[in-house]
């Protein structure tokens, strides 16, 4: 079995990079949903949620860049078209115009649930199959942020 430039076995790394591309696609759809929520929020919690959605899409943008660069580090190309994102994402697009505050937060919580699920799979794949501690560590950081933010958003909904 051949070894790539950072000392990982090619076959396992290719599978891991493919898995990271699935995570990247889900993040891209999630990111756009957050932008839509930020732009279209209305109601009594406008100021709070407008700022929170901006914080979350900025975090998602950072995460997207980190994922794409990790995929490149693993010697694969990141997905880069919306067609590919939609095709590979389990998170679905929504129209945010007219959604209630509650529904927007529930949508973001649903996205986090899916992202956390995929991230746990990637961590397992990175650790057990590819012996790639770098990817596992990076994804663990993303996971911790989403777990904490999910708790906070559930508290906001009153369903903590």
Tell me the name of the CATH homologous superfamily. Ferritin, core subunit, four-helix bundle
Q: In DSSP terms, counting alpha (H) and pi (I) runs of 4 or more, how many helices?
A: 5
Supply the number of structural domains. Answer: 1
Q: Briefly, what CATH class? A: Mainly Alpha
- Structural category is mainly alpha
**CATH topology-level name:** Ferritin
Uncertain runs: none
Query: Which percent range fits the helix content?
Result: over 70%
Account of the protein in words:
The protein has 160 residues and is mainly α. The chain has a single domain, classed as Ferritin, CATH 1.20.1260. Helices cover 75% and strands 0% of the residues. It is elongated. Pfam families: Ferritin (PF00210). Belongs to the Dps family. It comes from Pedobacter alpinus. This is Dps family protein.
Please render the helix and strand layout as text.
Elements lengths: L9 H31 L5 H28 L8 H7 L12 H29 L3 H25 L3
Can you give me a brief rundown of this structure?
The protein has five helices and no strands. It is mainly α.
List the main descriptive attributes of the protein structure presented here.
mainly alpha, 160 residues, Ferritin, 5 helices, elongated
